[in-house]
Amino acid sequence: MSLTRRLGRNCTALLCATALMFASFTGSAAAAEKKDNKAAQVDLAKQSVSAVLMDQATGTVLFEKNGNQKLPPASVTKVMTMLLIMEAVENGKVKWSDKIRTSENAASMGGSQIFLEPGEEMSLEEMFKGIAVASGNDAAVAVAEHLAGSEEGFVQMMNERAEQLGCKNTHFSNVNGLPVENHYTSAYDIALMSRELLKHDGVTKFTGIYQDYLRKTSEKPFWLVNTNKLVRFYTGMDGLKTGFTAEAKYCLSATAKRGGFRVIAVAMGAPTSPVRNAEISQMMDYAFANYKSEVLFKPGQVVQQVPIDKGDVRNLPIVTRDTVGVLMKKGDKKAAYQQEIVLNDVQAPIKKGQVLGAIVIKKDGGVIAKSELVASIDVSKAGMWTMFKRTVESWLTFGS
C-alpha cells in the first residue's frame, strides 16, 4: 500500500474520531443546557390556571404560566377599583374624610359585603377599608358612583386606565368582579395594575390590615377580617386582593416586601384557597431565595437640575416617572451596574410631566432597564424684562 493511501486512511479515521468526540461533547453540552433550562422552568404554580411573578421595582417577570390568558378575575377586579380611588385622592378630587352615601343600587350588591344600608353614609377611608380588607362589593359600587356619577361611568374609567397601563387582555364590565359577561383580565395584566397601585405608598396601610372594625362607635360595629390570610402568616406580605367565584375559582394578587425587595405574585383559577395560598407562597419563596432588588430612585424623585436658557426659571428639576431599580441574582454586585442620564433638547415652554429624557441602567455595556424622566413643574418662556435682568446680572458677575 502506498504511503499516500495509508496517510489518507489515517486522516479519515482521525476525522471520524474527532467528529464522534465533538458530537459526544456537544450532545453532553446540549443535555446539560436542557437540564439547566428545565430547572429554570420549574412550575411554581402547578394547579393554578395561570400565574405571574414580578419584581415590583423594575417590572421584570421572574416566572410566568399562561400569563396572557383571558380569565374571570372575581374580586381581584378591585385592584383597578382601588387604583382609581387612590389616584382620585392624590389628585385632590376627593379626601379620605369625604362622606360617601350608599345608593339603593350599591346596597343591593350580593357576595362579599360590609352590609351597607340605602342612605347610609361612611367616610371614604372607611369605605376603602371595607373594599381592601373585606372585599365589600357594596362599598366598591358606592365609591364608584360617588367618583364617576354611576357605576357605568366608573367602569369606563377602569377600561381606559387599563389601556393606558398596557393591559392587552383586559375588559371590565363592573367594579367588583361579580359574575357578568365580557369581564376578564389576565395574570400579567393584574400584575401591571398591582404594580401601579403599589406606587401609592399608603395603599398597604389598608391592604395589610388583618382585622379591624367598621362603625366602631355605632350600635352595630362590623368586624373586618382580611380575605387574604397570608398577610398574617407570610413574612412581609401586606396585600393586595383575593377573589373567588364558581367560574373564576380562587384568585389572588399578592405582594410582599423583605428589605428593599418587593415582589408581586398573581395566581388565577386555583382549585382551592389552600392551594392558591401555597402556590403564591412558593412563588414568593422562589423570588426571595434567588433575587434581590435595589431601588435607585423612587417615583417623583429629583435626578438632576437642568438649566433652561430662556425659561422663566433658570433650572428645572427633572424627576423619575416611575420607580428606577435593578434586579440582581443573589451574589451579583451593585457595582456591576452603571447609570446614564440621556436628555432631549430641553427648551421652554415645558409642561409638567413632559418627557425630557431617560435614565438608562447598563450592565456589561448592555442596556437592561430604561425609565423616563419628566418635568417636575411647568416652565414658560422668559419675558423680555426677565432676560434683561439676567443679562445685567451676568455683566455684573463677569465684572466682579
Order of helices and strands: HEEHEHEHHHHHEEHEEEHEEEEEEEH
Number of domains: 2
Named at the architecture level, the CATH assignment of the largest domain is 3-Layer(aba) Sandwich
Q: Going by CATH, what is the homologous superfamily of the largest domain?
A: DD-peptidase/beta-lactamase superfamily
Mean pLDDT metric: 86
CATH T-level topology of the largest domain:
Beta-lactamase
Strand content: 25-35%
Family: Belongs to the peptidase S11 family.
Catalytic activity: Preferential cleavage: (Ac)2-L-Lys-D-Ala-|-D-Ala. Also transpeptidation of peptidyl-alanyl moieties that are N-acyl substituents of D-alanine
Protein name: serine-type D-Ala-D-Ala carboxypeptidase
InterPro entries: Beta-lactam/transpept-like, Peniciliin-bd_prot_C_sf, Peptidase_S11, Peptidase_S11_C, Peptidase_S11_C_sf, Peptidase_S11_N
Structure, described:
The protein has 2 domains: 50-291, DD-peptidase/beta-lactamase superfamily (Beta-lactamase), CATH 3.40.710.10; 298-399, D-Ala-D-Ala carboxypeptidase, C-terminal domain (Peptidoglycan synthesis regulatory factor (PBP3), Domain 2, Sandwich). The protein is built from 11 helices and 16 strands. It has helices at 3-40, 78-90, 104-107, 124-134, 137-148, 151-164, 187-197, 203-207, 230-233, 273-290, 384-399; strands at residues 50-55, 61-65, 99-101, 121-123, 211-214, 222-225, 237-245, 249-258, 261-270, 291-297, 302-307, 315-320, 324-329, 337-343, 355-363, 366-375. The chain has a 5-stranded antiparallel sheet with strand order 2-1-9-8-7, sandwiched between helices. It has a 5-stranded antiparallel sheet with strand order 11-12-16-15-14, with no helix packed on it. Strands 3-4 form a two-stranded antiparallel sheet. Strand 1 (50-55) and strand 2 (61-65) form a beta hairpin. The protein is globular and about 75 Å long.
